[in-house]
Amino acid sequence: MPDIRLSSLSRCFGPLVAVDDITMTFPEGTVTCLLGPSGCGKTTLMRMIAGLEIPTNGTICFGDRDVTKLPPRRRDVGMVFQYPVMYRPLSVQENIAIALRRERHMPAAEQRRRIEDVMEILQLTSHRDRHIGELDSGTRQKVAVGRAIARSSNVILFDEPTTNVEVSAKLQLIRAFKQFRQRFRQTIIYVTHDQTEAMTLADQIALMQAGRISQCTPPQMLYERPDTEFGGWFLGNPGMNFVSPRGVRDGVLAFDILPDPLVEPSGGAAELRLGIRPEYVRVLPPGSGDGVRARVLRRSIAIGGQRLLTLAVGETRLKAKLAPDHAGLTADEVAIECPLQHAVFFRAGARLPEAPRALSVAAVHA
After folding, report:
1. pLDDT grade, residue 254 (50/70/90)?
2. What is the SS3 assignment for 328?
3. Closest CA to 89 of 133, 140, 144, 148
4. Residue 365: inside a domain, yes or no?
5. Residue 183: how many other CB atoms lie within 10 Å
6. Do both 294 and 319 map to the same domain?
7. I want to staple 302 with a disulfide (CB 3.0 to 4.6 A). Which of 291, 306, 346, 348 is the partner?
């Protein structure tokens, strides 16, 4: 199972730079999700890895093998597209089995076992003799996934495979992906704009923005400590709150949402913002402890029945996400706490190297 190494990889279409000077590694036997908004370059990047696009600059290596100029058939890569490509006259089992015809090194008994394993995981066993024209879109996509997985390819590429299937089939596919990765340990690159999929499936997420990799880390690290404001905004539903300081004087920095000022970080306060996720904003009864007074501007329901409050603290607006049974859902005025251990500080859109907890609370100047 090779790792995949990209070096200074770019792809231009005339004046448009779709992929811009990317250098990164996809470790062997892992799942990497390319995550980002539409048009950020993630599909173009995957197509170059597959050999369907030729890089303008840079190299692609599978292990020690340079495949930059090799056609797709010589890269031994499995690929599943948004819209499944099927052999309509064949049955489900025959569609999956056809992928193994070139696997001459694999004994016939092993091929049959692998086909049965794949169909069982994808819940296709009862459909084995049905023809593709008799299947719905979700089941067809399962067959496409099964055909890619059944091959002994060390690298498999998925281009938003759940985008055009109904919710139940999507959940079944996600569960199947988890089982496949545990059983076969192939190197998988998975393109998606769905952050839930990425957080669920990936060993690492490569977050893309405007043709570049903004950050590539394990999912939880990306969520908790994004390197950029873009990462904080893009991940989460809703994304991070971003709060500018109310003012700075004599090295002391004040935020509306914090009860005490902070020592101004090195480099000054220009273009400085504090980021905190809505689920970390604590909502308390008015007058509680060190809480800061806030007004409730709006109440709405978020995914999973959670409640979303839009709050005003002075000139600052922020959101708080609460459990459905939270006691503070009806009051028009509340107190809030924004724990510094859950805050991230950015300057000019990039995360500061100092951890928020290292920014000591300053004595209030007389």
Report:
1. confident
2. coil
3. 133
4. no
5. 12
6. yes
7. 306
Residue 363 has phi, psi (to 5 degrees) of: -70, 140
Note whether 51 and 180 are same-domain residues.
yes
For the domain that residue 326 is a member of, what is the CATH number?
A: 2.40.50.140
> Rounded CA gap, 13 and 335, in Å?
53
The pLDDT of residue 233 is 96
User: How long a stretch of residues is the chain?
Assistant: 366
State the Rg of the chain over Cα: 25
- Three-state DSSP at 257 gives coil
pLDDT at 9: 98
Residue 363 lies in a domain: no
The total of structural domains in the chain comes to 2
What rounded mean pLDDT belongs to the chain?
88
Domain that holds residue 209: 4-233
- Is 328 found in the same domain as 278? yes
Q: Cβ–Cβ contacts within 10 Å for residue 55, how many?
A: 21
> Do 202 and 278 share a structural domain?
no
Where do the H-state alpha helices sit in the chain?
Answer: 42-50, 92-97, 108-121, 137-150, 167-184, 195-201, 219-224, 229-234
Last residue of a domain, one of 166, 199, 233: 233
* pLDDT digit string, tens, across residues 155-213: 899 998 888 788 888 888 888 888 887 777 788 999 998 898 899 899 999 999 999 99
Element housing 132 (H / E): none
Tell me the CATH number at 31: 3.40.50.300
Do 222 and 268 fall into the same domain? no
Helix (H) or strand (E) holding 249: strand 247-249
Regarding pTM above 0.70, the answer is yes
Partners of 13 in the β-ladder: 16
Half-sphere exposure of residue 211, counting CA atoms within 13 Å on the CB side?
A: 12
Q: Exposed (0-12), middle (13-18) or buried (19+): which is 103, by Cβ within 10 Å? A: middle
Structure tokens at 111: 């091929």
pLDDT at 228 over 70: yes
Inform me whether the pLDDT recorded for 361 exceeds 50.
no
Written as one letter, the residue type at 122 is L
Q: Which residue has the higher pLDDT, 76 or 355?
A: 76
Termini Cα distance of the chain: 65
